[in-house]
């Protein structure tokens, strides 16, 4: 009797250990292989296609893998500028951003995330869009493996190829054809910034008929791209750019990059709309309304005639304050 219990306990331990090894080993082997093999699809794409089938829709997910050398380098820079400006400097997790997000979420009802590009690749490629501690644990493990096995350039290449740009449009290859009728290699700076501007919520923000908020965000992304420089993803170094009346020795010459506070920018847009409505009401009714303006609106840089689409600032590039 006792020997039987011991035998069963050993078998149980062996099954648990074997299962644990497989759970940890299989993702590691798969992620290592994807360093050289291009993914055919992603979990988010499969989830979206399943939703279309459930709705009896004739539409299909649009996806086309494009190698990095056939993608405009500005596209890579645009997503880093928009989503994760510390990308070259961290190992998959932006601890400072996580701390700020936790502090914000304790004080506000609006939940703010702090996912890096590597974490988004892990989620989009392997995990379902759900929330649980098990899923979060798998995300952390997969993120660490991706950072361990892939180069930074490979991570961005996979990200722009599986990111969702519209309801059924995934990847820059399909997006460039769908929105601009051109190949990904021929995207302009303005077009890459516009694509990156919708990434926080492609079901809410749209490349076609973009809202003033999307255009404002796209302009901000272009300014960040200009300040970061083409080699930022590889080197992680922001060049010190000199303009008229600005010297490299000045305190503002060294640019400190940071993630765009998307929630704060959205609140700012709402406050601007409310302020405009109040002013219009005051003019109509001939009443004076004293409405304090507590927001610090960011100036929208006008578009230039430059074919590159870059918005050259008149002084050293700065970021939106937190």
Explain this structure to me?
- The chain is 53% helix and 1% strand.
- Helix 3 (73-83) packs parallel to helix 9.
- The longest helix has 32 residues, at 2-33.
- The protein is built from twelve helices and two strands.
- The protein is globular and about 75 Å long.
- Mean pLDDT is 77; it is low at 242-264 and 285-322.
- It has a domain at 34-243: Orthogonal Bundle (Penicillin binding protein transpeptidase fold), CATH 1.10.3810.
- By secondary structure, the protein is mainly α.
- The chain has helices spanning 2-33, 43-54, 73-83, 95-107, 117-126, 133-149, 152-162, 171-180, 189-197, 212-228, 232-235, 262-285, and strands at residues 62-63, 169-170.
- It has a two-stranded parallel sheet with strand order 1-2.
